[in-house]
Amino acid sequence: MATKRFSLQELAEHSREDSAFIAINGVVWDCTCFAEKHPGGAEVIESAWGKNASQPYNEVHSPGLVESFFGEEKFMGILENDGFNENGPQRAKRCLQPIQNIVNLLDMEKAAGEILTERAKVYIEDASNDGVTARLNIQCFQKVLFRPRVLRPVGSISTEVEILGKTYGLPILNAPVSLSMIAHPDAEIALAKGL
C-alpha cells in the first residue's frame, strides 16, 4: 500500500476533535483523542490540530518521541511540503560572536540573547519562583577572579581540578534541567556530556 501524501490544505481539513491530524517533521500523525492525555495540556495539542507542529514540538521533545509514542497505527502519511525551515542552527552560526570576544558572563549572556528564541530566553531567565538560586549563582560567578601575578612563571598553567576522583578541565559542573532543547536541539546531549 502506497504511503498517503498530504498537502497543507488536506492536513488543515483534519482540525476537529473527531479527526485531528498533526504534522511533525514531515510525518502526519493521527492525534484524535490524544489531547486530554498530553502531559503538557490539551490546549497545546488542540492548537496544533490540522497544522505543521514541527517547530514547537522540536523545541521541547526529541525527534523520535512521537514515533515511539504513537507507533505505526497512528501514522497517516507524509506531508508534501512541510514548510518547516530548520534555519535555527544556521542562523545561530551566522550570529555567533568569536569566542575570544566573550570574556565574562555578561558577554556570554549578551551573545546568547542574540541567537536564542524569545521562548528560550524567557525560560532561561525566569529563575523559577523567587529567583534566589539565580541571584546566588550570579554572586558566586562574580567571585571568580583571574588576577594577574607579576614575576610568576606562567609558561605552563592548568585550570584542571579533581572532584570526587575525576579530573575536570575547569572547576565548573552542571546539573540536568528540563526543556533544555528550547535553547538548542542538541542541548540535552551537551549537558549530559558535561562541560
From TrEMBL:
<keyword id="KW-0560">Oxidoreductase</keyword>
<dbReference type="InterPro" id="IPR001199">
    <property type="entry name" value="Cyt_B5-like_heme/steroid-bd"/>
</dbReference>
<protein>
    <submittedName>
        <fullName>L-lactate dehydrogenase (Cytochrome)</fullName>
    </submittedName>
</protein>
<dbReference type="InterPro" id="IPR000262">
    <property type="entry name" value="FMN-dep_DH"/>
</dbReference>
<keyword id="KW-0285">Flavoprotein</keyword>
<dbReference type="Pfam" id="PF01070">
    <property type="entry name" value="FMN_dh"/>
</dbReference>
<feature type="domain" description="FMN hydroxy acid dehydrogenase">
    <location>
        <begin position="97"/>
        <end position="195"/>
    </location>
</feature>
<dbReference type="InterPro" id="IPR013785">
    <property type="entry name" value="Aldolase_TIM"/>
</dbReference>
<dbReference type="Pfam" id="PF00173">
    <property type="entry name" value="Cyt-b5"/>
</dbReference>
<feature type="domain" description="Cytochrome b5 heme-binding">
    <location>
        <begin position="3"/>
        <end position="80"/>
    </location>
</feature>
<keyword id="KW-0288">FMN</keyword>
<dbReference type="GO" id="GO:0016491">
    <property type="term" value="F:oxidoreductase activity"/>
</dbReference>
<dbReference type="InterPro" id="IPR036400">
    <property type="entry name" value="Cyt_B5-like_heme/steroid_sf"/>
</dbReference>
<dbReference type="InterPro" id="IPR037396">
    <property type="entry name" value="FMN_HAD"/>
</dbReference>
